[in-house]
Amino acid sequence: MFLTIPTIMTWTRIVAIPLIVGVFYAPLDPATRNLIATVMFVIFAATDWLDGYLARKLNQTSSFGAFLDPVADKFLVCASLLVLVHLQRADVFVAMIIIGREIAISALREWMAQIGASRSVAVHMLGKVKTTVQMVAIPFLLYDGRLFEVIDTGVWGTWLIWIAAVLTVWSMVYYLRKALPEIRARVKK
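Given the sequence above, the corresponding structure tokens read:
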């Protein structure tokens, strides 16, 4: 099902990337750019939960949707991280950890699917927690100001993105350990 409501919502996360990046090139004051980019990120990130809910509720799940959903999430997160590195709001080391893990685990999942062992690297709660922390840290860093004149989103975002980096490494180790028996079995052949 290429054009179901949930799949269209997933596509919006991919379309959002140039829009969020473009905001930082708009002739607006920095605070307005930050606010617009933050609101856009939060809205588009929320479609991740909503498209899955609607796919199940409307019985519109599909293998294409299951493929596209994590790809859209990874594109949105990676593009936002690159913007944040460019704006000097996130450390390049954090971005390398998160982006590198996404590439490595995506490749691992693809390989495990090819050999019929995809269950060994199925999504785990640790990966979901990592994604949630990223999805909270990124808008804090995009906003980069005082929220309600109390919360310094730059400081909180920095702490959260580093926590996300730690969870990223932890989840990668978890998935690699789960796949290790299959990897060993294939190497011996």
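Strands lie at 146-147, 151-152. Try to locate this feature in the token string yourself.
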